[in-house]
Amino acid sequence: MTCDTYEMTERHHPVIAFLVASPFEVLDLTGPSSVFERSTLNGERHYSIQILSTGSDGTVKTAGGMTIANACKFSDYSGPIDTLIAIGGDGAVVPQPPELANWLAERAPYIRRIASICTGAFILAGAGLLDGLRVATHWAWCDALQNRYKDLRVERDPIFIKEGKFYTTAGVTAGIDLSLALVEEDLGHAMAAAIARTLVLFLRRPGGQSQYSSLLAQQEGIENARMRDLPVWVKAHLNRKLDVEDLAKAAAMSSRTFMRQFKAQFSTTPARWVQSLRVEAAMQYLEDRNASLSKIARNTGFRDEQALRRAFLQQVGVTPKQYRERFGELARVRGPHREPNVEVSPSLA
Fold this sequence. Notes:
The chain is of the alpha/beta class. It has helices at residues 3-10, 26-37, 90-93, 98-107, 121-126, 142-148, 174-187, 189-198, 214-220, 225-236, 244-250, 255-266, 270-286, 293-299, 305-315, 320-334, and strands at residues 15-20, 40-41, 44-45, 48-53, 60-61, 67-68, 72-73, 83-86, 113-116, 134-135, 153-154, 160-163, 166-169. The strands form four sheets. The chain has a seven-stranded mixed sheet. Strands 2-3 form a two-stranded antiparallel sheet. Strand 12 and strand 13 (166-169) form a beta hairpin. The termini are far apart. 40% of the residues are buried.
């Protein structure tokens, strides 16, 4: 299909244009595309998908060598664009030709939303579109992005950031989170939730959530397999008592052996460690302004609201209410979303 044919046959649908510099990260493209392809209005597909190549022909290539042939060179496409999304990958990090920067500068005022996924932020930044804005990218590329483009305000933690009509995301799967948020903006919560269920996405992460969780960080340096799986098990059973005996049983160890192994691996007490995971889970709930503090306390294993408040003050330095006032704004702007599901991980037993 040529660019002109596409324009004539799909004009009546909002066009999601993926701007791709080869080689690209395949999930940056296929994940968001799957979300938009499942979005319907009155029983019909709502969006049209267009792949725009930064190269000289109508193909784009993944980092693994696969080729998608029905792309269109960006400069050959003259049709409408509702949402432009720059895709990440090795090809996005290298400097782009001036022709692309000029095209982006000319088209940007007429595009309703402009986004980047992962290192796709380098493409938008290279065209000057992100100057002065808060931006996100994959945590491993934050320093490089900030060093190359001094006018940006690169933030390491968020899954995605919205600044006016510009959206930037963290690495790879964060593009799916952003796509669900965009669908929710356009078609409402019910459609976004239905797509999330279809794609078996148990947890829709709000933009302000940290992209590099303490649970993931804790698992990296643990050699003992039973102890390495313990954070996941605890995260799935936060509403239980979770004393030393429970933790030792989950790790298939005696209490004495467990305490020795735990101290060596985590350098803290089991009680304080469990509390930190409860607080991290509570942060996710608090970003949803519809969840009551009593329900959050109950779902994350705190005895009551006061216990939740004391733990927050101790570990975060603010009260749950203060945390919600800051980060709950993201959820309020985007509309209600599902609460984090902490009951889906398999048992260690």
